[in-house]
Write a structure and sequence with these properties.
alpha+beta; about 45% helix; transmembrane helix; two-component regulatory system
C-alpha cells in the first residue's frame, strides 16, 4: 500500500513559553535594582562625601589660617601696645607721638590710631579724607598707670604682672639725674670688677630710672656675700630718691588717715614694716620684708633707724597696699601721659579677622551643598538615562529574538563601550539571521537531494510491482546507482555534522604530497578521460612532506578534482601542484606521470606552509558567487540538476577537513578562463640530519 506523507503544521516546542512584547516591556527591574538606580545612589553618595570632605577641609584650613593670622596680629598688636605704653610712661603728654605711630604702622602693615578718651584724634597712620572711620570699640586703652596685663605680658620686653597695674617704666620723680647715674655707674663697674676678680661673673644692669645695679650671673646671688666686694654702696638712695620717697610716704599716710589708720614708714623698695639690715661681708643674709607693687629697679632698702610701726594685721596690710598704690598713681600722674584709646585694624578699616559661622552663613553653606547635590543628581539622571536607554533597546531586541520574532537592529549612538556593544549585537543579529536563512535553505536542499534518489527508487519499485518494469540487471544497476548516491549524500552530511561537533577524528602520519596527488589523479583519471579533460600532477620528486590524515586529505583533494573535471569542458586541463610557501620555499615544479612539463629548482625540506593547488581551465566562477562556493548546498545553478553539479556539500566538506588539519582553503577564479583552489597546510619539519 502506498502512503504519502503530508506536511503538517509546525507544533510549538514543548517546555517553551512565548512572551508577548508588551508583557516583556512590563517586566522591568525596580529602580533600586536597576543600573540607573545604582548609578544615582553611587553618584549621590560620592557627591555627599565630596561636599562633606571639602567642607571639612575648608573649615579646618580656614580655621587654622585664621588662628595663625590672629596669633600673628595679636603679637604685633602687643608690640604696638607696649611701644606706645613705654612712650606714655616716659612722656607727660602725647605730643610728638605721630612719628612713632607711623613707624609702628609701617612695620606691622596695620592701621594704628590714638584718640583721647573723648575720641579726639591724637595720631593716626591713615591720613587723608578717604581714611575710613574708626570702629566703635577700641582695641585697648593705653594708660601706664593701669596696664592691660594680657597685652603687657605678650609685649616685646615681657613687662607687667598680674599684681602690678603700673608700668615699671613709669618712674616719675624717682628718675636719677645724669650726674647721679654716672656716679652710681662708676661704683657699679668697680663692684663688677671686684666680683670678677673673686671668680663671680656679674653684669651691670641699668633700670628705667637710670639706677645701675649689679646682677650676679647664675642662680645663687648670695655668693657675693662671702667676698670683700661691698655692694651696699649701690643701695644708698640719692637725695632726689629720698625726696620722692618722702613725698610718696606723705601721700600714703594721708590716705591711711582718711581711713582712720596710722601712718607707715615706707622703705626704699616701697615695702613697709621692719627695714631689712644692710648686708655686710661675713654676715648672713637678712630676711626680706614683704614687697608691694613697686618699680622693678627701685633702690634696695638701706639700714634705717628703727621707727615705731602700727600693729600689722592682714586687714592693715591690704589697706596699706591699697593706699601705697593710690599714692603712686597720684604721684606719677603728672609725669606720664593721660590715658588714650588705641585702635588697631587693617588698612582698609577692618579689625582683627574672624570666622563668623552665623545662621545666615550656615544657611548659605547648606544651600551651596544642596545645590551641588542637586546638580550632581541631575547630571547623574541625565547620564544614567543616556546610558540605560540603549541597554533597554538591547534587552528588548534580545527578548524579541528569544520569542522567535524577526531580528531587528538597535541604533548605535556612538563609538563608546555601549555603542560598540550595540554594533556587536547588530552583527550577531545579522549573523543569526543569515544562519537561520541558511538553516532553512539547508533543510530544503537536503529534502530535495534526498527526494530525488528516493523518488527514483520508489518509481522503479512501483513500476516493478505494477508489472511495468522487469527486474533485469539494468534495473538492478539503476537502483544501485540511486542507492549509492543516497548513501554519498548521507555520508557527506555525517562528515559535516562530525566536523561541526568537533568529533571529526584524524589519524595524522607523514605524507608525501606528490605521492598523494598521484593517487588522487589515478582515481579520477578514467572520469577525466571520458570527459576529454587532461589531468596532470605538477610536483617535483620527492616533493614536500607534511603530517596529515592521508584518507581525509585524499578526500578533500578528490572533491576539488571531481568539481574541476565536472566544470572543465572537453579539451581542457586540470593541474595538481604542490609547493612550499613561506620560509625556505621553492617555486612550483611541473612533473608527473600524466604530464610532460617539468620545472627547474631545488627541493628543500625547511619549514613553511605546503600549498596544494587544483587549477582548471573551465568556465570559471562569477565574482558575486565566489564568496559562497564553500557554503553548504550552495550551487551556482539554482535548478540543482544532476547533470550540472553535485549535492553542494563537497566544497563545504573540503573546508572542514582542511580546518581540522589547522589549514585554510581559498578560491580564485576568472570567469571564462578557469579557477584555482588552494589548500594551505602546516608543513612537517623533518628532523635534522646527523
Amino acid at each position: 500500500m502506498r502512503r504519502t506523507r503530508g506536511h503538517g503544521a509546525r507544533e510549538q516546542e514543548p517546555g517553551r513559553t512565548r512572551l508577548s512584547p508588551r508583557r516583556a516591556d512590563r517586566a522591568r527591574l525596580p529602580l533600586r535594582r536597576s543600573l540607573l538606580g545604582r548609578l544615582l545612589a553611587v553618584s549621590a553618595l560620592v557627591a555627599a562625601c565630596s561636599v562633606a570632605a571639602t567642607a571639612w577641609i575648608a573649615v579646618q584650613t580656614t580655621s587654622g589660617a585664621i588662628k595663625q593670622e590672629q596669633g600673628q596680629n595679636l603679637t604685633a598688636d602687643a608690640r604696638i601696645y607696649d611701644t606706645l605704653l613705654e612712650y606714655a610712661a616716659r612722656n607727660p603728654t602725647w605730643d610728638g607721638v605721630g612719628a612713632t605711630v607711623r613707624k609702628l604702622a609701617r612695620e606691622s602693615g596695620r592701621r594704628v590710631a590714638l584718640t583721647t578718651q573723648g575720641r579726639q584724634p591724637l595720631a593716626d597712620s591713615a591720613t587723608g579724607e578717604a581714611a575710613p572711620a574708626l570702629p566703635p570699640q577700641a582695641s585697648a586703652v593705653v594708660d601706664p598707670l593701669s596696664v592691660d596685663t594680657v597685652l603687657a605680658a605678650r609685649g616685646a620686653d615681657g613687662q607687667g604682672t598680674g599684681a602690678d597695674r603700673i608700668d615699671p617704666r613709669a618712674v616719675g620723680p624717682f628718675r636719677l639725674s645724669a650726674a647721679d647715674s654716672r656716679a652710681l655707674r662708676r661704683t657699679a663697674d668697680d663692684k663688677v670688677a671686684c666680683l670678677n676678680r673673686a671668680g663671680i661673673a656679674s653684669d651691670v644692669v641699668v633700670g628705667s630710672s637710670g639706677r645701675p645695679r649689679v646682677q650676679i650671673v647664675g642662680n645663687d646671688p648670695e655668693r657675693a656675700l662671702g667676698t670683700r666686694c661691698d655692694l651696699a654702696a649701690l643701695d644708698s638712695p640719692t637725695r632726689s630718691e629720698r625726696k620722692a620717697l618722702d613725698a610718696l610716704t606723705e601721700l600714703a599716710d594721708a590716705c591711711l588717715k582718711r581711713q582712720g589708720r596710722e601712718g607707715v614708714r615706707l622703705n626704699n623698695d616701697l615695702s613697709w614694716g621692719d627695714p631689712a639690715p644692710v648686708a655686710v661681708p661675713g654676715e648672713p643674709g637678712a630676711v626680706v620684708p614683704r614687697p608691694v607693687p613697686a618699680p622693678r629697679d627701685a633702690p634696695a632698702e638701706q639700714a634705717a633707724p628703727s621707727v615705731e610701726m602700727p600693729e600689722l594685721t592682714g586687714e592693715n596690710d591690704r589697706a596699706i597696699a591699697s593706699c601705697v598704690g593710690t599714692a603712686r598713681s597720684e604721684q606719677l600722674s603728672s609725669y606720664v601721659a593721660s590715658p588714650a584709646l588705641l585702635f588697631i585694624g587693617d588698612e582698609g578699616g577692618a579689625t582683627l579677622p574672624g570666622f563668623d559661622l552665623s545662621p545666615a552663613n550656615t544657611a548659605r553653606i547648606a544651600g551651596a551643598a544642596a545645590l551641588v547635590l542637586a546638580l550632581t543628581v541631575g547630571a547623574s539622571v541625565f547620564a544614567g538615562a543616556r546610558l540605560v536607554r540603549p541597554l533597554h533597546a538591547l534587552t528588548g531586541a534580545a527578548q524579541r529574538m528569544r520569542d522567535g520574532e524577526q531580528p531587528t537592529s538597535v541604533p548605535v549612538s556612538g563609538d563608546d563601550e555601549v555603542g560598540r556593544l550595540a554594533a556587536a549585537f547588530n552583527d550577531m543579529s545579522a549573523h543569526r539571521a543569515r544562519l537561520e536563512e541558511q538553516r532553512k535553505a539547508m533543510v530544503s536542499d537536503v529534502a530535495h537531494e534526498l527526494r530525488t534518489p528516493l523518488s527514483n527508487i520508489r518509481g522503479w519499485l512501483e513500476a516493478a510491482q505494477d508489472g511495468l518494469a522487469d527486474p533485469d540487471p539494468a534495473f538492478v544497476s539503476s537502483l544501485l546507482e540511486e542507492a549509492v548516491l543516497l548513501q554519498h549524500i548521507i555520508d557527506d552530511l555525517q562528515d559535516l555534522a562530525a566536523a561541526d561537533a568537533g568529533a571529526l577524528r584524524l589519524h595524522p602520519e607523514s605524507v608525501e604530497v606528490r605521492e598523494l596527488l598521484g593517487q588522487v589523479a589515478a582515481a579520477h583519471q578514467a572520469r577525466a578521460e571520458n570527459a576529454g579533460v587532461t589531468l596532470a600532477v605538477a610536483t617535483p620528486a620527492p616533493g614536500p612532506a607534511l603530517s596529515a590524515d592521508p584518507v581525509r586529505l585524499r578526500q578533500a583533494v578528490g572533491n576539488l578534482v571531481s568539481n574541476a573535471v565536472r566544470h572543465t569542458p572537453e579539451g581542457g586541463r586540470v593541474t595538481l601542484r604542490a609547493y612550499v610557501a613561506g620560509q625556505d620555499a621553492s617555486g612550483p615544479y611541473v612533473s608527473g606521470p600524466y604530464g610532460s612539463e617539468e620545472g627547474h629548482g631545488t627541493v628543500v625540506t625547511g619549514g613553511g606552509t605546503v600549498v596544494i593547488e587544483v587549477t582548471d581551465t573551465g568556465s570559471g566562477i562569477p565574482a558575486d558567487d565566489l564568496p559562497h562556493v564553500f557554503d553548504r548546498f550552495w550551487r551556482a545553478e539554482k535548478s540543482r540538476s544532476r547533470r550540472t553539479g553535485g549535492s553542494g556539500l563537497g566544497l563545504a566538506i573540503v573546508r572542514k577537513l582542511v580546518e581540522a588539519h589547522g589549514g585554510t582553503v581559498e578560491a580564485t577564479s576568472t570567469e571564462g578562463e578557469g579557477s584555482t583552489f588552494a589548500l594551505r597546510l602546516p608543513r612537517e619539519r623533518p628532523p635534522s640530519a646527523p
